[in-house]
Recover the amino acids of this structure.
């Protein structure tokens, strides 16, 4: 089913708006990575074995000191995850601007935002833990629901509703 001229224009404007949002977010990943650190789940973060060794050496033979543990999903450090997600957002932004790649970029963006849900849920869980703060609870209570409209917006750009 072909889109009418006004529907095509609306989709192009919507893609440009999402692209701008993604570019601003991608830039923020590199300018203010600490903003994104709480939404990178600990189970994804590789622990630095060199740092773990110096901590162990500093414990002067304490048998209770444990070596750093890296889970199966801990492929990168928190900083690397933030940088990679910023690069993915920038790539998605560019892909949404090019009509030939828009549908694929929109599907990728939908998947990316859906994957980010895990980090937002984990951040909210930690915010409501005994170690969490009132500020973290407010921030993450607001951040998590914002993912749903972003997912739906990206999905709409993929043409999934129209069966294209």
């Amino acid at each position: 089913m072909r889109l009418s001229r006004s529907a095509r224009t609306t989709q192009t404007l919507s893609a440009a708006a999402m692209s701008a949002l993604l570019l601003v977010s991608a830039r923020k990943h590199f300018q203010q990575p600490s903003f994104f650190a709480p939404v990178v789940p600990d189970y994804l973060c590789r622990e630095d074995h060199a740092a773990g060794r110096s901590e162990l050496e500093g414990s002067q033979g304490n048998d209770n000191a444990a070596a750093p543990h890296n889970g199966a999903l801990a492929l990168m450090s928190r900083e690397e995850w933030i940088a990679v997600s910023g690069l993915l957002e920038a790539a998605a932004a560019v892909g949404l601007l090019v009509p030939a790649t828009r549908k694929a970029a929109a599907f990728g963006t939908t998947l990316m935002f859906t994957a980010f849900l895990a980090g937002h849920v984990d951040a909210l869980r930690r915010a409501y833990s005994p170690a969490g703060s009132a500020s973290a609870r407010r921030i993450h209570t607001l951040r998590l629901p914002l993912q749903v409209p972003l997912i739906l917006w990206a999905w709409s750009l993929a043409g999934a509703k129209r069966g294209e």
Observations:
- DSSP finds five helices and no strands in the chain.
- Helices lie at 5-31, 49-58, 78-97, 102-127, 134-157.
